[in-house]
Predict the structure of Tyrosine specific protein phosphatases domain-containing protein.
Amino acid sequence: MICWCQQWLCFSKKKKKVDCSIIDLDEKEDHIPPLSEDLLVVVTGSMTFGTHFDKYEQWIRLLKKVMDQKRDETREYPFRRLSVQKYRKRSIKLNPLNSLQTLHGNLIRTRTNTIFYATQMPMENVDTLVDTRIDFLALIMKDEIEIVVMLGPTRPFDGKQYVALNGMYFCEATGGIVSIGSYIVETVKEEPFLINGVHFKDISMRTLKITDKKKQSRTIRQYQYTTWNEKENPPPNGYETVYELMKRVKMSQKPIMVHCTYGIGRTMLFIGLEYITSHLEIHDDWTFKDAFEKLIEKRYCSFLNAGQIGWLEVGVVYFMVRKYELEWVMFEEFNRKYLEMCQGSWGPGGYGAK
């Protein structure tokens, strides 16, 4: 009895996991107005300068920065690392400072305060992996998420056949219902993605209703870019599609969940277009390289090849031209240069696709 009262015995209740605060890795700069039109032209135009070889070397150097990045996963107590069983690919490390902690994902805030959750696709119990679909849905409910962006098809081609993705958390067809743990996800409807009467056929737009065991429900909008394959860039007219999709999802005041299979590559391209543009529009002393280096701090292994980095820089020029109604010739000439490089054996199409 004395031992019990003095708590000398080693029996104790299991401590509940406490999530640490997510650290915002950028300074607040939303109060700074955009540059004048003259300076916006200078910043945008400077990205287009250089020969084919100059640009290719630049993208290779930036890719090397991604590959050589120190990928530290440690953080002081009481932070607890995500179980490795929740990693789709264990070589893709997780920055602990802005980690979502319950999922393999990171918070990325743009200068204008749009918050993105860059995450991998949820998983089911297969081999050494554990089911993370419940964690995925729980985060949507907890953070009152309104928008989910899925980049890629539900049945990607693996080189031999089309294979259903592991970790599907919704039914594609209207009226479909899937039960995941204590959650029920119903596909209420699927409709075309229309902007001013123009149908963007690469985007499927769904309304999903998530209901938990307490009968609390949340209705979200999911946008799926069905033709954006892994390790590839969007098909022709992809910049306009991404630009219009970005405008639509930014209307939400809640965090925007963005995922592809591994939460890198496509996910970071989509987020990167908005992130880099939002910084370059106020910093006349920054280059694409400066903003790119800040972006890759947020999520390790962000990009897979030089072709993706080239597509991103051309896309930032597109966003700047489109947003501020600058001269189209800047984008057109830069995009032409990039496409010529992709068709050659020495440019991003040759290196980046390998």
Q: What stands out?
A: Residues 9-14, 350-354 have pLDDT under 50 and may be disordered. The beta strands are 105-109, 115-120, 147-151, 177-180, 183-195, 198-211, 217-225, 256-260.
